[in-house]
Fold Acetylornithine aminotransferase.
Amino acid sequence: MSNNLAVKNIAIMNTYNRFPVKLVKGKGSKVWDDKENEYLDYTSGIATCNLGHVPDQVQSRVKEQLDLLWHCSNLYEIPNQEELAELLTQNSVFEKVFFCNSGAEANEAAIKIAKKYAKDQGNPERTDIVTFKQSFHGRTGATMAATGQEKIHQGFTPLAVGFRYLALNDFESLSEISDGKTTAVLLEVIQGEGGVNPVDKEWLTQLEKICKENDILLMVDEVQTGMGRTGTLFAYEQFGVKPDVITLAKGLGSGIPIGAMLASESVAASFSPGTHGSTFGGNPLATSAGIATIESILSDGFLAEVKEKSDWFRKQLEKLRQSSNKVIGIKGLGFLVGIELTEPVGPWIDRFREKGILVLSAGANVLRVLPPLTTTKEELNQFVNVFHEIETEE
Ligand SMILES: *Cc1c(COP(=O)(O)O)cnc(C)c1O
């Protein structure tokens, strides 16, 4: 089966290899195509629809806002934006929020503030940002350069300057961070696109120590790991670190586009009127979705249930691993799950889809499974059973 629609005469630029499915409707964990086939969506629109599709609470809040005001400039006070910023800062170690529209933009904001911070601290020679191999930070000029994957750079040189890539979880190379040229370290605590690779907790503690001792900013890209995906509101909470900056997007608006960069008071002081901005960033409509999303995730027992269900799911997957010679390991945290296979993942994704389940890859051999946080044990079981069916096929 060909996944390449480039041959079709459609007016969309060919930046994605699209699966031959036209999705037209969604509710909860389910989506339907134009032929009324039902699928269990264990991609969650790539970690975006964390509350499932068209979640009631978010839908009604957005509908309310649709009747009031969709957009106004950031030249005016925006009550929804203030409320969402309050919710984000009250439930994290940060004091200030900058709103934008996507993950790449949130990381652009982090990159900019890190550069400005160095100058404001009297360290203009600190121009570099350290990132890691196999990372993913976005597709814009600077975030593509921040991404530690050659295949993403290919054809786009000259790249934005000032990025250096170290090996993740490598203790030895940590000393390169305190070279006097580095203003910030940007990393995912679990690399999503790069293969569902978690950082080693001890290594991260060591990295944080070097950052604090040298006034280098620790910036965590939580675009994929944030908003409850790993079982806590933010993934950094589970690694015992206190970052200076985090970035959010995917799950923040349940599918209504919104991004954010959160920072401590002292770092946030480096942005002032005229230094950064965004027309749409934090507009009334997008922030209404954000408010309802975070309220749902923080509602009583929600995250405890995510933890319970995802622990149970992991146990089932571990059993599959033990009985299968095609599964190397189960990676990730919460409902950010990577199943490392002994063989290419592409045919598995096709088989899952043919059997009514949508899943993703992360690199060549890792099946990436991102159930909505609201998924049921019954649905999780359906996945486990289908996995077993595919695994025992010849
Ligand atoms: C998806 C992703 C991005 C980019 O987000 P966009 O909204 O597509 O720009 C950045 N960082 C991480 C970790 C991501 O998973």
